Amino acid sequence: MSTQDLKLFDLLDGLEMTKSQYEWLARRFENMTAKEALLFRGAMQIEQPQATCDVMQIANQLEHYELLYGAGNDFALGNFVMEHIFYPSSQTREFLDPVKVGAAYRQKDGNTFCDGNFIRLSSPLDLSQNSDPAMLPDRGDYGIRVKLASRNNMEGIWVGFPDTSEYMDSSHPDELLLALDALDAETLTECIAVDVDCCLPQLRDM
């Protein structure tokens, strides 16, 4: 079990689970990309589930959460909000305190700081689904996944493609940029692909 998997299981301390639930979570955690793992940690803080079946539903609905990269305190969050979300005029911004803006944004329901970033609930989560959680997909919603490793992280990190974000910059990073962070690498030239997975059986010799 990788370091990432162990850290994610630590979040479930005190929850009872069956053998099938443990096995499903082990597969889900092993298959999580860097972005999914970060969103899951934030979602656990927001939802604070009391049952393992709810944890499984959360792990299967991570698209309901949004990452604000690098907004790890009220000051950074306030600047992020004014630079990327609300865009106040330059004249108005002179009178806005980033700390107060960040605090006001943070105090909305379904928000939390997590690992130097900010995670928010962007759409309602459904924890009342009647289907057996153990029958849920355990690999995330990606067409292709590539596992990258680096000198600083030989265990490797899954990267999901295509990237799901409408933004591709340092303020709104998606799969690849977050994976490079987790691998402690600046570019892909510092990484090696060690595994690949595709949900389309007709694509061979990946």
Summarize the structure.
Helix content is 36%, strand content 18%. With 206 residues, the chain is α+β, with helices and mostly antiparallel strands.
Polypeptide structure, described:
36% of the residues lie in helices and 18% in strands. It is α+β, with helices and mostly antiparallel strands. The strands form two sheets. Strands 1-3-2 form a three-stranded antiparallel beta sheet, covered by helices on one side. The chain has a three-stranded antiparallel beta sheet with strand order 5-4-6. It is globular. About 2% of the residues have low confidence.
SSE map:
Blueprint: H1 3-10, H2 19-31, H3 34-47, H4 52-59, E1 65-68, H5 74-84, H6 90-93, H7 98-106, E2 111-114, E3 117-121, E4 144-150, E5 153-161, H8 175-182, E6 191-198
The best one-word shape is globular
Q: Helix and strand succession?
A: HHHHEHHHEEEEHE
What class do helices, strands and sheet pairing give? Answer: alpha+beta
Side by side, the strands of the main sheet go 1-3-2
Please, how many helices? 8
Please report the total strand number as a whole number. 6
Keywords:
206 residues, alpha+beta, three-stranded antiparallel β-sheet, 18% strand, globular
